Amino acid sequence: xxxxxxxxxxxxxxxxxxxxxxxxxxxxxxxxxxxxxxxxxxxxxxxxxxxxxxxxxxxxxxxxxxxxxxxxxxxxxxxxxxxxxxxxxxxxxxxxxxxxxxxxxxxxxxxxxxxxxxxxxxxxxxxxxxxxxxxxxxxxxxxxxxxxxxxxxxxxxxxxxxxxxxxxxxxxxxxxxxxxxxxxxxxxxxxxxxxxxxxxxxxxxxxxxxxxxxxxxxxxxxxxxxxxxxxxxxxxxxxxxxxxxxxxxxxxxxxxxxxxxxxxxxxxxxxxxxxxxxxxxxxxxxxxxxxxxxxxxxxxxxxxxxxxxxxxxxxxxxxxxxxxxxxxxxxxxxxxxxxxxxxxxxxxxxxxxxxxxxxxxxxxxxxxxxxxxxxxxxxxxxxxxxxxxxxxxxxxxxxxxxxxxxxxxxxxxxxxxxxxxxxxxxxxxxxxxxxxxxxxxxxxxxxxxxxxxxxxxxxxxxxxxxxxxxxxxxxxxxxxxxxxxxxxxxxxxxxxxxxxxxxxxxxxxxxxxxxxxxxxxxxxxxxxxxxxxxxxxxxxxxxxxxxxxxxxxxxxxxxxxxxxxxxxxxxxxxxxxxxxxxxxxxxxxxxxxxxxxxxxxxxxxxxxxxxxxxxxxxxxxxxxxxxxxxxxxxx
Length: 635
Hints:
This protein is of the alpha/beta class and 635 residues long.
């Protein structure tokens, strides 16, 4: 399967007089022209010029100082760069390594580089080193060099090969697959090939038998292997790697060895064909068109896992819980995600977002909570990882879109299973302590100011016996302005809490200001959210006017007092979920909001009265006409 690219743009650069234009002209015309203009226009090699069927556009450049700006622009647009030197002018090779390769790095041109020695026919063979001797130290210093080749445009020696290697470096790049320093397959390539091996191992015995090898060959290359060819493949593997083959067939170790061998021999297109046939893109991730993520029609909708996907994940958890202790240790989790490009929870915001066991493992509830979090935050990533770890049902059956929260408010109920709660409050109010307590982590007296969003996710058991997933998102005080600058920022919020230090007058005042800002944003955008006021640090002496002052500018319920230090949480997380499940209640109102609401109610009442009055008038007119008609007929 070919790359998705429709063209390959190759920029040719190098010192003046090194044969750039001659090389391009000879490649395009398959002859050496007598006259060549100083700078050629873009030259196109037709799709059928090379086997991959992708046209190559070659850009000639000038190395003169006055054209350096244009040269930089062209280099930045390149898919691959051909750097030339003249075989009969050693100084041009020195300049290539001392200037041109450094210039590409300075311009941050991160594409494959093909180094080409032109004018091979003019080289003095008496004083020449081999190409390998000349280029080995340069290639060790500049790993971006994909290939080195010498050619002669005058004698048409290895001219087409120059642009074939350039095209190949783009369509079948080495960098994603193979580490030149360690001479080994890169981890992401190994993970993808492992997944492909597992998908082809239909009897799940850890080896590809002859039938499975043949099916793999037909799927990827549209041609079966002959029995002698299968025997030959196994022999090659077994001679180099005894455990690459066993009595059942080709093992995973042998499968990986074969691909490393293909790459070492320059047959990268073989491995790329396999990867692309199984849906991988140039970054060795599943192509976007394979991820059927349902679309949200409104910003206040969210995406959740379906029951079918959740049941699949429960089965996966059980399968990889090798010691059956009810938790996945780090090694078990790594094994579970060993067929994904990388473990999706090794970095923020997922790394520290879930509750851990004493040994650092995660329980089934934490496992499902992290999946729910990833699905809400990045549904495409969640779906891709489901597929990576073996979800082979219709991808559309894995995710569902919730109804609009605005619609839920009108219905006065919601069918959501995952709720996101924004946690607002000033510095040192107790926001971080609240998140840590949600994950069962011990209280600490040390204070560190939060500078970026933090998350905590866990299950919450409701009083009626059902479980909901709650995601707490801590908004730093300094980040509120940026958050609210987006008019749709509250659309993703199901419920909000406003935390203040109950012993600090300023903390309450600042929290009240934040509450007013958020309430106004909700009223203006139409994405008002249920909100709770939390009086944290209840173990300290409370500010006496707290309850009176908290309701001064915004209509909201009385503060909920709690102390994380004393482990008196006052059922706060159940209260948060209950508020989210009743989206029509606990929505704060400002004075302006109440006035507008009262005005709308008056207008609606007036319209009802007008409608009733009109109806009465119509009925009266109809009755009069009926009476008039009877009177006329009686006369």
